Amino acid sequence: MRKRKKYTNTIPIYIVVIITIFLVSCYFLFSNKNFKYCSNENYLLGIHDSLPVIEINYNNYREDILKEIALKLNKETCCKTNEFLLKLSNNEKVNTTLFNYCRSCPIICGGRTHTRVLINRDYQLLVNEIPVENDSLTKYVFNLLKKPNTDYEYVKNCMLYWDLTTNKEYIEKTLIDIKKGYQLYYEEIALQQFGKQICKLTQKEIEEIKREEISIYLGVGNRITIPPPQPPKNN
After folding, report:
1. Structure confidence at residue 55 (pLDDT)
2. pTM for the complete prediction?
3. DSSP labels for 157-212?
4. CA–CA distance from 105 to each of 61, 79, 101, 159, 208 (Å)?
5. CB-based contact 153:146 (threshold 8 Å)
6. Whether 80 contacts 198, CB under 8 Å
7. Count of helix runs (H) and strand runs (E) in the chain
8. Alpha-carbon gap, residue 44 to 149, rounded angstroms
9. By mean pLDDT, which of 92-101, 179-188, 214-223 is the weakest?
10. Which is it for the CA torsion 24, 30, 33, 36, positive or negative?
11. What residues form DSSP beta bridges with 85?
12. Which residues pair with 14 in a beta bridge?
């Protein structure tokens, strides 16, 4: 007597995959438009009412930017991790972190802890020294987050550098594109685990997909010029 073949029900999996592809495609299609985040998305992206909200002048020199941030946060930022919400021109807020590495700070040892995003003076976008098309950063960050390789664990924290002459609009667009990459990644996790969008998740479900908080670091706090070693003293 022949045994019956067992078939696993793969229809729900296919439905989730199709929905994910559709939403990702729609997201990239309309990514240049203003995007409104629901409370669940804001929670995952670190947009909390408890954090201070500030604006900065991106085109000042490094020391002037650091002084401006310290003044607006009303605290000493040196050798500390300072988290705040950066308010952009379109009133959108981005979770931002500054570690002001001063000369008095202890030396930090260890491997790479950030994904380096650089806007050079020619308005070329580089991610970990790799050129990326200006309109592809969201997708690039999203794809990095999806990679299972442990080498990409540091992508959860991008550190943004820009040239003194970079215009404000371009810097803020880059901040938004990174934020959208994180949002899109969380959206896919929600669909895969629960079969629904982030905004429709319960608080318990949100907690289940929440990992270590992500943030965009400002590279101005990491640029420190190390003086040349002093010549040996004559005995």
Report:
1. 97
2. 0.78
3. EEEEEE-TT--HHHHHHHHHHHHHHHHHHHHHHHHHHHSS-GGG--HHHHHHH--S
4. 21, 5, 6, 19, 36
5. no
6. no
7. 6, 8
8. 22
9. 214-223
10. negative
11. 53, 95
12. none
Q: What is the CA radius of gyration of the chain?
A: 21
Query: Cβ distance 94 to 176 under 8 Å?
Result: yes
The arithmetic mean of pLDDT across residues 171-193, rounded, is: 93
Q: Which residue has the higher pLDDT, 50 or 232?
A: 50
- Measured CA to CA, the distance from residue 207 to residue 68 in angstroms comes to 35
pLDDT at residue 119 greater than cutoff 90: yes
Query: End-to-end distance of the chain based on CA atoms, in angstroms?
Result: 98
Residues β-bridged to residue 107:
none
Question: Crossing angle for the helix pair 168-194 and 137-146, nearest 10 degrees?
Answer: 40
